[in-house]
Amino acid sequence: MDSLKQLDERHRKFVEERHWQKHQSPKNLAMALTAEVGELVEHFQWLTVEESWNVSGKKKEAVAEELADVLIYLTRLSSELGVDLVAAAHEKCERNEHKYPVEEFQDGDRRPHEYKDRDKY
Known about the structure:
The protein is an all-alpha fold. It is 63% helix and 0% strand. It is globular and about 55 Å long. This is Nucleotide pyrophosphohydrolase.
């Protein structure tokens, strides 16, 4: 499987075979996505910054599983809403490139929330 569309089709089939489609509303998918993000966060809770960069072994496997859950619910939600997730992400990147001009961040010390956009979006 090498595309979000293929992943979504695989999971859609999984859902249909189990007659779970009635539970796949955007509201429920968004809530499930939020729950999975929470489960992902739990793996990093209480780690130092350095430890968070170096997860390995069973912990890395668990993180990968939660990331997969997040991706599955995200692709299902976008599919149910008719949103091309890749196109939307590219559009968001373009807006961010304009909103946060590279020349404003050359010192490497400013964070996005510290920059006040001159051209309000």
